[in-house]
Amino acid sequence: MSTVDTKKQDWVEKYAERILRVWLNLKSPLGIDGQYSRQVKDQLNEYFDDPLKRGLIETTYKG
Q: Residue 12 in contact with residue 48, Cβ under 8 Å?
């Protein structure tokens, strides 16, 4: 795996965790299933290559 692929995968994992944590903290009676988690990661994988979307995610889900 190249350095770029590793960086992208780390970014996807980092922000997927942050997004899912926000959803879980909403105290909704509904949980999050594995399909939703996979969908978030798939979308983040696409957003990584788009500077505008990537910046929006990074700004919205700061640590």
A: yes
Dihedral sign computed on CA atoms, order 19, 24, 30, 32: positive
pLDDT digits (tens, 9 = 90+) for 11-60: 999 999 999 888 888 877 777 777 888 999 999 999 999 999 999 999 99
Q: Under 8 Å CB-to-CB from 9, ≥6 apart: which residues?
A: 1
First to last CA, the chain: 27
Are 50 and 8 in contact by the 8 Å Cβ rule? The answer is: no
Q: Which residue pairs, CB below 8 angstroms and at least 24 apart, start in 29-35?
A: none
